[in-house]
Amino acid sequence: MPIDALPPTGWSRESVLSTLDGYRTGDANWKDGRTFSLVYYAGEEVKSLLEAAFLKCFSENALNPMAFPSLRRMETEALAIAAGLLGDPNAVGTLTSGGTESVLMAVKTARDWGRAEKGITKPQMLLPTTAHPAFVKAAHYFDVEPIWLPVRTDFRADAAAAADLLTERTVLIVGSSVAYPHGVVDPIEQLAALAQARGILCHVDSCLGGMILPFVEVIDGEQGRQMPLWDMRVPGVTSISCDLHKYGYAAKGASLILYRDRALRKHQFMSHADWPGGLWGSPSAAGTRPGGPIAAAWAVLHFLGQDGYLRLARQSLGAARAMMAGIAAIEGLRVLGEPDATVFAFTCDDGDIYRLGDAMEERGWHLDRQQLPPALHAMITAAHAPHVDAFLADLSAAAAQVRGLPAADDGQAAMYSMMGSLPDRGMAQELIVGFIDSLDDSAAA
Ligand SMILES: Cc1ncc(COP(=O)(O)O)c(C=O)c1O
């Protein structure tokens, strides 16, 4: 029976928890390496540390920085650690609730900076088509017009096309390291140089890559490989976002944004001195700032340390590269571009990739679907390392099963093909909104 009212009398603790467990039985099982997004699992030892640290600060609130100096201290220390990892030990920043909030703050800051410093009232930002949709959200919320920068055939932003897309109204150029869809780093040096030459801001979105690329660089360095700079080491990069709750392995609700200097960061803050409720100030989008995620993020950074992150990066990168090599060896399958770290997409040249996604689903592997071009997507962590061979064996069998078949007319595959091929993208957007709108009906079933 669906529950649709506050129970007249409270349930027992046992009933609450066993009902909750019942609800959870249909959830994705992420511990066995068969899902490829949403959860970044670094093992039971890390999970239990996160839980312990989270619970210690479970009730505390970083909204008032005077009330809980411990949270302020943990935030400052986590930011200092990130600043060192991301190429500018003098950078200043804020912890946020997630990548989306960090991106929202980057765009809000750029808008307010452009208004204050350049008198730009109708700002634009230049955005690779692969940038995370959090930027579209930010554009919409803050009324900043997105100008789309195409990506090259290697899926990296086409920096050569960027100059022609800048106008007197551009306040911000965005690059990703790594971009979610294909796991590649954009040419940050070129994008930042352009921003610097024009006297505008450049934000690097390292929400996904920020906590693994520093260690991938070490591993690649051992093998004589070097990737182009992707962080605040690059002159002209004015801010960078990095999620601790992805490859930082923190509890959900922990990301950060760093700025080159304090003057720029001030454009992120909000204050209101005339509220009867008191003198009010807020560093980011959130009001209440839960203590748990801050404590857990601080804890895991110290628990893992450089050696722990390097060990996990070795396992994740080893697994990702073994999977990519295995995929490339399967007839008809191809990895898109040359992924720089542990995130990649692959497609199939003689069959329907969405059909392949469904065939893998039947075998218990849950890969996310992509479009433009159609592909399957994977984010690899150490949790996948023991399952590489099983994954490749199933993928090989699934590829043989769908090889040469036309696009599917049922299952998820058909839905994705239909959505991807709708010429009217406005209609595609409406269908997505309709789907979100219907979720409460299906949840009550
Ligand atoms: C590159 C990038 N930026 C931003 C985000 C948004 O992060 P969140 O889901 O934590 O809001 C993501 C999420 O996957 C991402 O990959």
Strand content: 5-15%
Task: Kindly report the oligomeric state of this protein.
Answer: single chain
Could you tell me how far the N terminus lies from the C terminus, measured between alpha carbons in angstroms? Answer: 8 Å
Number of helices: 14
Order of helices and strands: HHHEHEHEEHEHEEHEEHEEHEEHHHH
Kindly provide the radius of gyration, computed on alpha-carbon positions and rounded to a whole number of angstroms: 23 Å
Indicate the overall shape.
globular
> How many domains in all?
2
What's the CATH architecture of the largest domain? 3-Layer(aba) Sandwich
CATH topology of the largest domain: Aspartate Aminotransferase, domain 2
Main sheet: strand order: 1-7-6-5-4-2-3
CATH class of the largest domain: Alpha Beta
The residue ranges in which pLDDT falls below 50 over 5 or more consecutive positions are: none
What's the total number of strands?
Answer: 13
Largest beta-sheet characterization:
7 strands, mixed
Mean pLDDT: 95
| Computed structural class | alpha/beta
Work out the helicity level.
Answer: 40-55%
Ligand types: pyridoxal-5'-phosphate
The fourth-level CATH homologous superfamily of the largest domain is: Type I PLP-dependent aspartate aminotransferase-like (Major domain)
Secondary structure blueprint with pairings:
Layout: H1 13-24, H2 44-56, H3 69-85, E1 92-96, H4 99-118, E2 124-128, H5 134-142, E3 145-149, E4 170-176, H6 188-198, E5 201-205, H7 213-222, E6 239-243, E7 255-259, H8 262-265, E8 270-272, E9 280-282, H9 291-329, E10 333-335, E11 343-348, H10 353-362, E12 368-370, E13 375-379, H11 388-402, H12 411-421, H13 425-437, H14 439-443
Parallel strand pairs: 2-3, 2-4, 4-5, 5-6
Antiparallel strand pairs: 1-7, 6-7, 8-9, 10-11, 11-13, 12-13
Helix pairs in contact: 2-9, 3-9, 4-5, 7-9, 9-11, 10-11, 10-12
Bound molecules: pyridoxal-5'-phosphate.
